[in-house]
Amino acid sequence: MRVQFVDAVARELSNDARSVFLTGDLGFNALEGLQNQLGPRFLNVGVAEQNMMGVAAGMALTGLRPWAYSIAPFATYRCLEQIRNDICLHQLPVRVVGNGGGYTYGIMGSTHHALEDLGALKPLPNMHLYFPCSNNHVAAAVRQMADLADPAYLRLAISGFADDRPALSEHPTTLTRRYAERPGARSRGLTIVAAGHAAQIVNRMSKPTEDAEIDIFGIARFPLDLGLDRDLRESVRATRRVLFVEEHYASGGIGESFAAAVAADVDAFSVMSAEYRKGQRYGSAAFHLNQSGLTPETVTNAARAMLG
């Protein structure tokens, strides 16, 4: 998603002289074109992510509109106090961008995995979270973030089960995508909801049973707005069974919030999420997804179990 992000942010910043771009000494072989385009509006603050957030907040107080870029664990965990105190409590238009959500940086180990980033930022006041489902979803998120007067976080990722298929539809405001639609209204229905790039895992699943009717949605923004996401809400109310998939820990994840939002409408709700085990081995993103039981095959099996 990084290539698509750079293209999208370059377009946005070319139209807004108040916007500036900060990087924590990351983006080699990716940000050089943006640096040339922006000139003095591009600032490499060095390996000093906490300071970068303070600088971004100070710039925002002068009327500038900063984007602050690093890899996801460095942009969130390392800087949480600065994001909370300097940016969110002052409701400043700083856009934090974290590349490498979930298991993207698989072989580099747990220090580089971002499996709690959304959960860490979700409770912060005035914060908006964006987690695109695929490469072709990034530009829409960047466009919305560019217009915000509030803090925002963008989670970029590479899936271990890459799938960039187009959606059947995309809500213009919530950015929720529909990837599959039940052909009828028989009793064997299930709503599968994926947070961000976990949609790519879901989209590669097999049909769990011959007569199964499944709706598949990918959500990409928090706070949730199921009042606007009518198709999603109607699907949940019709099937009354939800399988939620996310490349994030279950505790503090988007699935936790989604379950609370639809609690009155469902009879069964199950979350498939990332896991950590002491002594686990390290490998590619796909390796970690297999180790966590987050694969197209396991999603198929979970759907089959929920359908009964």
From TrEMBL:
Q: Which residues form the signal peptide?
A: none
- List the InterPro entries hit by this protein, alphabetically: PDH/Transketolase (IPR051157), THDP-binding (IPR029061), Transketo_C/PFOR_II (IPR009014), Transketolase-like_Pyr-bd (IPR005475), Transketolase_C (IPR033248)
What are the Transketolase-like pyrimidine-binding domain coordinates in residue numbering?
A: 1-163
Q: Where do the coiled-coil regions begin and end?
A: none
Protein's name in the database: Transketolase
Origin species, per record, is Labilithrix luteola
